[in-house]
Amino acid sequence: MLDIKVAFDDIKMSNLEKEDIVSIQELINSQNRYLDHEVNCTMELDELYERFLECYISENEFFLKINKENRLIGSLKGRLEFKSSNEAWIWYFFIEKNLRCKGIGSRILKKLMEYVKNEYGIKDFYATIVGKSDSIMNFWKGNGYEILRISKNYYNINGEDMDMIILKMKGKVI
């Protein structure tokens, strides 16, 4: 797992540790959101632990906890790919419902993008979202991302087929 530590104002992003998994699971389940879509579902502890282990043994992945004033408020997971143009992929990103639409998520995203650009020479940024949600799409578009591709019925969640939408950051990260 990549070692990422980003702090600004009262926000701190750092690697998820094994002892954080239960807290992250409780937060995800309390928000009724999982993998950036608005279908009510929960994440089982063993599934989250498996994802943590997959990330832990990969040298190019990151799985971050996000704290505000030392209180867990969200999580972000992704990977870096080192190619002719280095890429960052954000697989999921969420913060507590009561903190959304206040600019906090945008600040977190911007600081993470600046960090990986400066530390790892990342030039291209991508994000994936599940299904259609105007609020989630507006978040990404408001942060400079545009739809690159839609994979129809890529996921089946609770018996419902859902699309995977791949977004790409247009322009450059300052």
From TrEMBL:
Main enzyme class: transferase
Pfam short name (any one): Acetyltransf_4
InterPro entries the record matches: Acyl_CoA_acyltransferase, GNAT_dom
GO molecular function, one term: acyltransferase activity, transferring groups other than amino-acyl groups
Domain N-acetyltransferase: 11-172
Keywords: Acyltransferase, Transferase
EC number(s) per entry: 2.3.1.193
Name of this chain's protein: tRNA(Met) cytidine acetyltransferase TmcA
Organism: Clostridium liquoris
